[in-house]
Amino acid sequence: MDLLSFLAKYDDTLKNSFIESTTFRDTSNRIQNELIKCTADVEMDHIKSEIKKAPFVSITLDETIDVANLSQLSIVVRYVLDGIPQERLLGLLDITSERTADTMLKIVCDIISGLECGSKLVAQSYDGAAVIAGHLGGLQSKVKEKYKHAVFVDCIAHRLNLVLSRSMDNIKVCKVFFLTISSLVTFFSKSSKTTRALDIHVQKRFPKVAPTRWNYNGRLVQTVFQYRDALIHFFHDVWDNKEI
Q1: Which of 163, 199, 193, 168 lies closest to 182, judged by CA?
Q2: What PANTHER family is this protein classified in (predicted)?
Q3: Which one of 49, 110, 132, 240 has the largest count of C-beta atoms within 10 Å of its C-beta?
Q4: In this predicted model, what pLDDT tens digit does every residue of 131-164 receive, in sequence order?
Q5: What separation, in Å, do the N-terminal and C-terminal C-alpha atoms of the chain show?
Q6: Confidence check: pLDDT of 24 > 70
Q7: Pick the CATH number of 54-154 from 3.30.420, 3.30.70, 3.40.50, 3.40.1000
């Protein structure tokens, strides 16, 4: 809506359409979704035409939690066209309810089948849930059974996160520090009463922590440091008044 309003300032036809039209203004959610779908179909046809010319293709899936606490799976393909690497985002899928290796395998197979590039698939890379990159029962071995040339490539950023996490586990002071600070997340998320108390007294919720994402720990430390005075005051009130 903001973009359309902005464009209407410089386009008299669009401006008059907003002012005079009573039936078709291009602003209904149905029309906007149809326009988005049409654009997506055109882009997908373009990607398919490029992949037909490419000698090989790789696929990358990355799972993360969004602000609504839903697991979103991003789907990306990479290929080389005329000597230039190309990377295309195909879309995002909500996999909150089902994240098994078999479900992921079906997603990969549907993508490869839709792009008609099974014989060109030479690499696969995943990050997120442990089931995705597991060596024996995970997705990579299942994909390799169907596409023999699809070599698994580990995520370098994921490796760095694991190195940092394991290093901190071997330093007692650091291990105790991160266990203590992560327990705050558990404490304030165990019930709606503690969550509401956090919203009232601190007015800031803690970011979730994950063992394979070091940046999550960094965000948590920064949040606790920024709101440490409010947290200290809150816990003093809890101790004195036994509110929770």
Answers
A1: 168
A2: PTHR45749, ZINC FINGER MYM-TYPE PROTEIN 1-LIKE-RELATED
A3: 132
A4: 454 544 578 888 888 999 998 887 666 667 777 7
A5: 45
A6: no
A7: 3.30.420
